[in-house]
Amino acid sequence: MAMQSLSRLLWAFARALLIATVFNASTVSAREVPATGTIAFSQLPVEARETIQLIRRGGPFPYSRDGIEFRNRERLLPPRPRQYYREFTVRTPGESTRGARRIIAGSDEEFYYTADHYRSFRRVTP
């Protein structure tokens, strides 16, 4: 008898969890992409401006991972097809690694700046 009660309780919990998961997934997919702020090109750190200039010239890029696909897993940028976004390192003075700063370039000449390794983005305006 106790085993049947435990089984029913577990089954009810599993159903509630499934319903919550489905509801949450539909809510997340239906909500709009969070708005990103903007930053004027002239207000970017000098290293970010240099990175954008390198992107526009087609390189050469100082880091081997520059130009790889950015997949927008965080879903903070507008949704686009695969291969649309590319990421580029923004040099950070005094940093021995690539650091956290990046420029994300869209195929349509749009640029996004992140100073915190993809936790937030600001669209670069002219």
TrEMBL record:
Q: What is this protein called?
A: Uncharacterized protein
Q: Which residues form the signal peptide?
A: 1-25
Q: Which Gene3D superfamilies does the record match to this protein?
A: Microbial ribonucleases
InterPro entries xrefs: N1-like, Ribonuclease/ribotoxin
At the highest ranks, the source species' classification is: Bacteria, Pseudomonadati, Pseudomonadota, Betaproteobacteria, Rhodocyclales
Organism for this UniProt entry? Viridibacterium curvum
Keywords in alphabetical order, please: Hydrolase, Nuclease, Signal
One Pfam family from the UniProt entry?
Ribonuclease
- At the top level, the lineage of the source is Bacteria
